[in-house]
Amino acid sequence: MTLLSSRNDEELRKLFIEIKTIAVVGLSHDAAKPSHEVAAYLQKAGYRIIPINPEPGLILGEAVYPTLADVPVQVDLVDVFRRAEACAEVVRQAVPLKPRAIWLQLGIVSKEAAQIANDAGVPFVMDRCTKIDHQRLLGKRMAGDKG
After folding, report:
1. CA-CA distances (angstroms) from residue 6 to 3, 12, 30, 54, 117?
2. Can you tell me the distance from the alpha carbon of 37 to that of 39, in angstroms, rounded to the nearest whole number?
3. In terms of DSSP H, where are the helices of 26-139?
4. pLDDT at 134 exceeding the cut of 80
5. What are the residues facing 21 on neighbouring strands?
6. What is the secondary structure of 98-122 as a DSSP string?
7. Contact between 48 and 72 (Cβ < 8 Å)
8. Contact assessment for residue 13 and residue 133, using Cβ atoms and an 8 Å cutoff
9. pLDDT-wise least confident of 4-8, 31-35, 90-94
10. CA distance 147 to 142
11. What's the rounded Cα separation, in Å, for the pair 61 and 27?
12. pLDDT, tens digit, 9 for 90 and up, residues 40-53
């Protein structure tokens, strides 16, 4: 199974080192929302953030795309901030992009989404936070980080 877990810290560390572009599905325009906080952290860590949200505009200085299919660049990681019942469809849309991994945020669990990713051979993480794991595995290496 291609499910990445806490027992695979080396795989997660390698993923964070190798990726450059993260599509954040459900990234909110509201800076107080967890999706915005996590994406801002990841952007500060040096990743290009691609906001996926049906409301047009800019988030964190990046153009917003309504769906993953609309993104014109290669996506390395699909980071999902959607309810569990929406995740299977998000993963179906993510698989054709051939990301290095699909990640469901902390508190989001979907066995159906995990199975879709597994069947497609795409590494999959769920019920974990990219910010927390990045801080834990690589945070001390962030340039200019005072925390």
Report:
1. 10, 8, 30, 32, 18
2. 6
3. 34-44, 84-94, 111-120, 130-138
4. yes
5. 48
6. --SEEEEPTT---HHHHHHHHHHT-
7. no
8. no
9. 4-8
10. 10
11. 13
12. 999 999 999 999 99
Residue with tokens 């990445």: 4
Q: Which among 92, 58, 79, 67 is positioned nearest to 16, based on CA atoms?
A: 79
Label the pairing between strands 48-52 and 77-80: unpaired
| Model confidence at 135: pLDDT above 50 | yes
Structure tokens at 52: 């996926």
Coil, strand, or helix at residue 70? helix
Q: Per-residue pLDDT for 147 more than 60?
A: no
Write the pLDDT tens digit of every residue in 55-79: 999 999 999 999 999 999 999 999 9
What pLDDT score does 139 carry?
75
Stated as kind and residue range, the H or E segment containing 62 is: strand 62-63
Closest to 130 (Cα-Cα) out of 69, 45, 65: 45
Residue 122 is encoded by which pair of tokens?
A: 């795409």
CA distance 142 to 85: 34
What's the CA gap between 91 and 101, in Å, rounded?
10
Across all residues in the chain, what is the average pLDDT? 91
